[in-house]
Design brief:
This protein is 8% helix and 47% strand. The protein is mainly beta. It has an 18-stranded antiparallel beta barrel. A two-stranded antiparallel sheet has the order 10-11. Strand 14 and strand 15 form a beta hairpin. Helix 4 packs antiparallel against helix 5. The longest helix has 12 residues.
Length: 455
Amino acid sequence: GDGESAGGGLPAPAPSPPLSVKITGEVSARLLGYTDDFSSFSDFKKTTLGDVFEGKLNVSASAANAEAVINLRLAPVFDGSASPVALDQAYLRAFFGKWIIDGGLRKLTWGKADSFGPLDVVNPIDYTDLTSITDTHSRKIPRPLVSASYTFGAFTKLEGVFLPWFEGHRFARSGRWAPRQITEAADLIGRNVIAGLGQSTLLPAEQQAVLAHYQNLSASSFYPETTGMEYAQTGLRFTTTIRSSDVGFQYFFGNHFRPSITIGGIDDFARNPYGVEPVIDFSRYHQIGADYAQVVLGFNLRAELAAHITGDLAGDDGRVYNPSLWWSLGFDREFALFWGAWRLTLNLQVTEGIRVWYSRIGSRPETDGEAGAGATSTRVTVILGSKFFMDELECKVTGIWGVEDRDFFIIPGIFWTKGDVTAELSAGFLGGDRTGELGQYHKNSFIKAGLTYSF
């Protein structure tokens, strides 16, 4: 009945907002072939053309002050070695006024660069297969973390993150995408040890036995366990808008994603030629960085600058990476050609790392993990694209150029989108110096065709 007419009483509580559940995802069918498999009929008969199927399933539930997200990656595993379902992200987000607290398995993007800038240091990258390297978000490896952010007005935010343990970039340990630094590590040990210590009294037959011993070793077995608190990482990031410029500042304490590989026990080689083994570690460092973004004369400019301060301040410890400076500069711009009949989009990014105390790096790879590396490491990424037929047809080419390595990766593609379905025909061509990071995969050029349905 009517509470007031019945003598009063408490008003009815306001109804709680209803729970909102959202399900999205995509299903893809693709064929992937490597060009070197087509070089002969015997090689063609052995090719598999990929796993054909892959998919994503994203589930989110949200209420008044909380949100839960579970993103799954679906891929066939025909040999039963792993589950066909993997967690891509799974986290809880709670809202407390201006505070937002996140916890779980997450991917975070720090910095303003379009592709793997120096400030994007929270998540490592999966390099076990480079055929989809242009999909930067999907190549990130989710990490267990806790993060909190506080907003000051509409354009200013302070964000902190804590990662209780660490994982480096993920590389294939065997197969066509395994880098030579891993596949040749054990052989490199044997050859460099014997060549560098030729004054030892080993007979030729004994030297061959030592070489065979190290060739049979697997460098992957020497990777350290990085799940302890000694590998915990933390960071703080502040972003704001000053007039028409977006700026950010950050501090991060963590580990290099790429391992440093040296050789332990080399001084005792003459007494125990079988006691030498790889020493693999991820150097700790402090990062201090800043970023900037602004639109100038139609160019969307983005810049990042970072300093990595490691424990090797003198530059002569071969087990630890030298301190380094990193910068990135890029822009994107749409150009109207032929009196507006054709619109071309250009995205350009240059990223460079500069090693401090480069002259103090040792020349022997068995005692200095940076031996043989250059003073600088520069990479240029260019993306050219254009759309036709009411934006249903997109033609795009991505080019990656390693300046010092003199190698390249060119990825052209054609994409036809009709409603929720996208047809793709793309390729990848790798070449250049065969000792470079990209050039070493010169045999892995590929052709890919597929269909994707998004829902």
